[in-house]
Hints:
The chain is built from six helices and no strands. It has helices spanning 3-8, 33-57, 63-66, 74-80, 89-95, 113-136. 0% of the residues are buried.
Amino acid sequence: NFNRLLKLNNIDVELHTAGRYKRTLTLFGKNTEEGREKFQEYLNETHLLFKDFVHQMRPALDIDKVATGEHWYGRRALALGLIDDIITSDEFIISHMDLFNVFRVHYARRRKIIDRITHSTGSMVERLLIKWWQHVKMPLL
């Protein structure tokens, strides 16, 4: 953390919390052994909750083999039973169109009135110049 660097440069950091374990570790304040232990306890609890959830969703999965903190991509994840298939999002949507309503959403930002006027005016001037060049048979640049 940056605590020693801040102290070396006479920079004070104040951390305000509303409970003993509200902020167990910090990048800027002084960390204690008690804070480290509590933070590790939180991490272990979160990991157990994650493993339980994954095991509930995929009971056949060897949870101790895959819940190591590592991550796997593509074919390796498929072989381990972490994913069901490797397809694109378009393929997934198309394959499920008969089960769900699929909507296409398009968002267009509404232009300000001045932008619409200047754009229309610019297009009109451009068309007039092209007609004028064609009329006087001047080569386009």
